[in-house]
Amino acid sequence: MELELWWLLGIPVFFGLGWVAARVDIRQLVSESRTLPRGYFKGLNFLLNEQPDKAIDAFIEIVRMDPESADMHFALGNLFRRRGETERAIRVHQNLLARPDLPVEQKEHAQYELGMDYLKAGLLDRAEETFNAMLHGQYAVQARKALLEIFQREKEWQRAIEAALALQEAGAGSRQKEIAQFYCELAQDALVHLHPQDALVLLEKSLQADRVNVRATMLIGDAQLAQGDVEAALLTWRRVEQISVPHTALVAQRMMDGYSKVGRAQEGVNLLKSYLEQASSIDLIEVVYKAVLELDGVGAAKQLVVDELRRTPTLLGLDKLLEARLMDAPVSVVSELSMVKNLVHGYTQKLARYQCSHCGFKARQFYWQCPGCSRWETYPPRRTEELNVMN
């Protein structure tokens, strides 16, 4: 009973101590907030209202009043870089690094930000030098990521492979798809310089990194063709279907040319028609249409386009149908059909784009690496209008 009474008496005491502690914390918080310059809150308010110009002016004023404020320097430098004023950002971060009293952690932070300034400014040699000096500190992973970006920009693919492997070993996630693409870049360069055997060695390494890499499979076929082995190339290109049927549109013209070269054009047409049934594509239709037109005539070509237009109604398909209609149209309607086709064709030029699934960047041609966001394998192998119809 005495113990219970003691606890009852202790409850108000504990409550009072908590109240006092809270009051002390509040007073300390208020005291600290009063020591902050008014310009800090003005700058923060401008940032929240998406007014970076006014925020910069406010932070510059704080730095003038308190030149020792490292945090304000970091904020100011980042704002300059975001606005594209890289020279001013570089000066801010260089000034920070020149301070002898700057703690080690903040010095590494300033060095990393300076490297990012150089990268944004396109001073890749200076950026590389800066990040190479940071491979063993707290910003090691971020520095390796920046170096990987630099090597890709400079198209130094072997160094990019080494940087990607280092990132994997550092626990920054798998980079196998990127590594496979880097080997593809090296292989493509070997093919351009007429070294198909070297290309095949590199492409085998690409497939070791990513067994379902469509590009590597396509390039292996190109290398075999460069060696004169058309049949081997055709067998390799047919493996694209096993990886991704929509991507067969990218290899369709190669296949049709190969089948024609070995005297089996009709077999090639029949194969590509089977791909159309699985994954309709205006690019695939284009290849099959030309082949059917040459082998079976205008009537068969028109019927092919009509069937595909019924299956996937798009303006791109309609444009191709009007082209087929014009081939054997009566003279009396040729003028009208031509006018309609020109109108449709002009509009379809805006729709005949590939679009990055990550950043939305549109391009007339297919890219393995997006020119907008630099990510790999973000372009679906279909045009934007076809994707909209499918969705």
TrEMBL record:
Boundaries of every LapB rubredoxin metal binding domain copy: 354-378
Lineage: Bacteria, Pseudomonadati, Pseudomonadota, Betaproteobacteria, Burkholderiales
Membrane topology: Single-pass membrane protein
UniProt name for this protein: Lipopolysaccharide assembly protein B
Superkingdom of source: Bacteria
Residues bound to Fe cation: C356, C359, C370, C373
Cytoplasmic domain ranges by topology: 23-391
Record family assignment: Belongs to the LapB family.
Statement: the UniProt record of this protein carries the keyword Metal-binding: yes
HAMAP family in the cross-refs: LPS_assembly_LapB
InterPro entries: LapB, Rubredoxin_2, TPR-like_helical_dom_sf
